[in-house]
Amino acid sequence: MPDGKCPVAICGRVGVVGGKVGGGVVAVGVGVVSVGTTVWVGVVAVGVVCVAVVVVAAGSGTRLDAGAPKAFVGLGRHTILRHALPGVFASVPAQVVVVAPEGREGDALTGAWEAAGEHRDLVSVVTGGATRQASVAAGLSAVWPDVEVVLVHDAARALVPPEVFGRVVDA
Known about the structure:
two-stranded antiparallel sheet; four-stranded parallel beta sheet
């Protein structure tokens, strides 16, 4: 394992080794664990995901004046939101809560599932509020009880490298 670190976030609870685990529990054991394109080989532990990333994508995009909420404006083949998510999923194992504008929840879920790959069970989408504060509060209300660290990420900052999320969690 690189730097002797396990890719699994342990929140003080140990579970059963092996098998497909969902609902915030990360599968582990002796062998190979992959997160994104990174593969760790060795002994790893079982644990509950204790990090959440709330991706705020509920803004109206008024200043951008693109005729759609900023996070749902196209940038190449994908929306800005869709570009923001691979870095989130390639970083530490985390629950990901996407906060979308009313009426765009389905689009947000589709984009999040595309980016999540095999980590779909870590994704949820909630409807944002009338203000940024209300939208962040809506995202925080969807965070699982076992989560110990929450990052709030603005979807408009679409090109944040995965390492940045890891450094913030470690800080």
